[in-house]
């Protein structure tokens, strides 16, 4: 019996050893599983909301960049959230106020940046001190800097005013005007030749690139705008009135299409591509689409000339910001650093004929070099409508000017715009 018991003890010992070995093997397997789970835990998804992600337009460049980022950062997945331009302001506000997941989003102007920022105490993640910020031209960071802290990263820079058919100018022996009087004389010459001097359309955002440029020429900088919004300066100020009257002069003298009030921007671009119009009110971002319409013509850019001086306008099309409530701030910073970095901006600038906001960037294209020479001048300024404090007020002002251009009396237009400015101040 004792011998038999010893046998059972030996058998139990062997079985226990096998069991422990199995458990050890199980722990090894579980350890591997834990590593996989840990890896999965590190896999994060960032939601990127933007108006730039329309595949029918320039969005492909952004999707390509996102795909490259994901390849370089396999632990980060980008969930794209396209919001149409017309619905963008409301869409972002809904997401911010409703607490919907949104890690990174874009803003197209300092006024829109300010309007989103007014929605809460802390809307944007503070990027101050981030290594990648040192790469940007200092002036490009000013619109997204609050009390010395930086809350956004700029993308490529454009300018606005007039694009023109350079081939037509050369064939007709026309010179780019340097003064307002020369510009009016040029328009008259073109009209007499049966050519529409300036392609203009009724889309609410287009006219600002013309009369807004004139305002910049006349000294309407950010300080002037602050005085306007505080009530120290009225809408009836000569700077504002002169600018919109000069624009109205184009309409009254027949220098724009007769049917402009019923035209879309794409139609006005068609007029240039067809050789029916010599110039168009827009920004340098439209150069590629104009060149695509007619490969036999060269398109170039000119500033709207002033009476005494002509000031270059800077229009930074997009600022990329991070939601302060993101759960993945470091990954979001990495995404912005990539999307707004030198390599990606140079690619984007070459495709869109824009100027990188990164110091030391190079884009081998004569048109880009010309635009760069304009937007990097010491006297270059943020074009006027973008210095208005909120997007909502900016739109109200633009709508008021558009009514004037379409036939409303000057007095009524001034009164309506002044009311919008006063209401905005009283509702703060």
From TrEMBL:
One Pfam family for this entry, by name? SBP_bac_1
Q: Which InterPro entries match?
A: Bact_solute-bd_prot1, SBP
Alphabetically list the UniProt keywords. Answer: Cell membrane, Lipoprotein, Membrane, Palmitate, Signal
Name of the protein this chain belongs to: Sugar ABC transporter substrate-binding protein
Endoplasmic reticulum among the record's keywords? no
Signal sequence: where? 1-24
> Known SUPFAM superfamilies for this protein?
Periplasmic binding protein-like II (SSF53850)
Organism, scientific name: Paenibacillus segetis
Which PROSITE patterns does this one have?
A: PROKAR_LIPOPROTEIN (PS51257)
């Amino acid at each position: 019996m004792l011998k038999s018991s010893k046998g059972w003890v030996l058998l139990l010992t062997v079985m226990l050893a096998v069991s422990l070995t199995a458990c050890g093997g199980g722990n090894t397997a579980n350890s591997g599983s834990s590593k996989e789970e840990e890896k999965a835990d590190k896999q994060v998804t960032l939601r990127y909301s933007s108006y730039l992600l329309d595949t029918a337009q320039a969005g492909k460049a952004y999707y390509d960049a996102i795909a490259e980022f994901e390849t370089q950062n396999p632990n980060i997945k980008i969930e794209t959230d396209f919001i149409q331009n017309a619905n963008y302001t409301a869409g972002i506000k809904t997401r911010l106020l409703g607490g919907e997941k949104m890690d990174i989003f874009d803003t197209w102007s300092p006024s829109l940046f300010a309007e989103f920022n007014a929605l809460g105490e802390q809307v944007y993640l503070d990027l101050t001190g981030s290594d990648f910020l040192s790469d940007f031209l200092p002036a490009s960071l000013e619109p997204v800097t609050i009390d010395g802290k930086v809350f956004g990263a700029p993308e490529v820079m454009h300018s606005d005013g007039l694009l023109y058919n350079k081939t037509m100018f050369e064939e007709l022996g026309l010179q780019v005007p340097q003064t307002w009087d020369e510009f009016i004389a040029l328009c008259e010459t073109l009209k007499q030749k049966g050519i529409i001097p300036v392609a203009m359309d009724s889309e609410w955002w287009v006219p600002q690139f013309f009369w807004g440029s004139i305002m910049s020429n006349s000294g309407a900088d950010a300080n002037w705008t602050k005085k306007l919004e505080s009530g120290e300066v009225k809408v009836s100020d000569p700077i504002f009135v002169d600018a919109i009257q000069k624009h109205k002069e184009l309409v009254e003298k027949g220098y724009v299409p007769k049917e402009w009030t019923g035209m879309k921007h794409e139609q006005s671009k068609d007029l240039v591509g067809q050789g029916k119009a010599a110039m168009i009110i827009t920004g340098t971002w439209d150069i590629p689409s104009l060149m695509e319409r007619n490969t036999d013509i060269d398109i170039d850019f000119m500033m709207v000339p002033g009476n005494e001086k002509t000031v270059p306008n800077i229009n930074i099309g997009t600022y990329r910001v991070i939601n302060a409530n993101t759960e993945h701030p470091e990954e979001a910073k990495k995404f912005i650093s990539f999307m707004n970095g030198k390599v990606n901006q140079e690619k984007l600038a070459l495709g869109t004929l824009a100027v990188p906001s990164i110091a030391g960037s190079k884009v081998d294209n004569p048109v880009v070099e010309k635009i760069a020479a304009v937007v990097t001048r010491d006297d270059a300024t943020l074009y006027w409508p973008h210095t208005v404090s909120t997007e909502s007020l900016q739109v109200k002002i633009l709508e008021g000017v558009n009514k004037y251009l379409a036939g409303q009396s000057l007095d009524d237009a001034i009164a309506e715009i002044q009311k919008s400015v006063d209401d905005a101040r009283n509702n703060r």
